[in-house]
Amino acid sequence: MAFDPGLAQRIREALARRQDVSERRMFGGIAFMVGGHMAVGVVGDVLMARVGPQRYAGALQQPHVRPMDFTGKPLTGYVYVDPPGIAEDDALAAWVGTCAAFVATLPTKAPAASKAPRRAAR
Fold it and tell me: What is the value of pTM for the model shown?
């Protein structure tokens, strides 16, 4: 599934002041990692938002928000925000800020190991 490049660019702009952001293709879309943790992403034209377990129930009360059920089972702490809920830049920035703040509370991740093939010792 392709992702909305315009929404991805808006997320990049919302995260532009951070130095700890990377991007990774996943879930058939794109994910934005903050400090090594997935914070937000785009699948199709929908925002994947990692709000955390404490904000999960409240997030689901917001308009245009639904459980993230990518595998058929809702993932607690993650929600989908449909396009009307992120149409305005301020609304998108609020979601991105909430998600970045949550992942900042998580333990630091070690850098990912290189996926280069190992050479046999001689």
Answer: 0.86
